[in-house]
Amino acid sequence: MHEYIPENNLMVMFLLIIITLGTYYFWWLARTSRVFGDDPVMNILLTIFTFGVWSLYLNLKYMQKSEMMNGRDMKWFMVLFLPISPIIIQHNVNEKLFPGR
Asked: Fewer beta carbons under 10 A from the terminal one: N or C of the chain?
């Protein structure tokens, strides 16, 4: 978790994912994988070869890790927010790395 990740504006990130039809998600996944100590290339390849199933697992895992990073437990109902989990994860990373913004 020592690697620097630039702060993302959550609305811009959401719009980029939509406008690029999900392509930006792979860029975000590579950067976020490094923050959580995973191999970004393997995560992207597994996401592509499993037709997105691996990304569901990763998003749940990273949502839990990002909550724990800020001293909170992930509640069971957070699974309902899986479609917007990249925004939640990025918000938690921003909260940890850029406090007070």
From this structure: C
